[in-house]
Amino acid sequence: LAEEPCARLVQALQALRRPMLLLDGRAPAPGPVAWSLASDGALAGRVVQGGRSIDLQALAGLYLRPADPRRSLPGDDAAAVSRRLSWTQDWVDIAELTPARVANRLSAMASNGSMPLQSQVLAGCGFAVPPMLLTNDPQAVLEFEARHGALAFKSASGVRSIVRALDGQARARLEDVRH
Hints:
alpha+beta; 3-stranded antiparallel beta sheet; 5 helices
């Protein structure tokens, strides 16, 4: 709930008086998920959290906020990390198999791991994609800026990063792009 998108979703669901179940894989002991596929391919199983047990077939939607389950938490041991990895994988799998609406399904977010790929996909869908430069050459950045005007930049990796303006402070660190 510390992340604004999650907090807003919870507020909206509360305002609509919709039932919800908040699941947090960073909790010391995330509730178990028991699931399987029936012979007809239907998802079957239950999730238990905070004393509540919910049939997976009753889910109308899932909103995933993927985080790396391997990140250490206070008091972690190998068993806790293993449980969190298993719990996270269960929800990734369930999100791929459920007929419910899923926001942030990992398979649909695959292009988010690469800004160049994401830009190509968006352009292929007809979106106007601004010119982009992927470089570790500070001079190329300055030439790109001279051609296109004010720039915004961010990491091109799959690691979450914040878009920033190429201002004086960033320009002073421009040599760092070599590394």
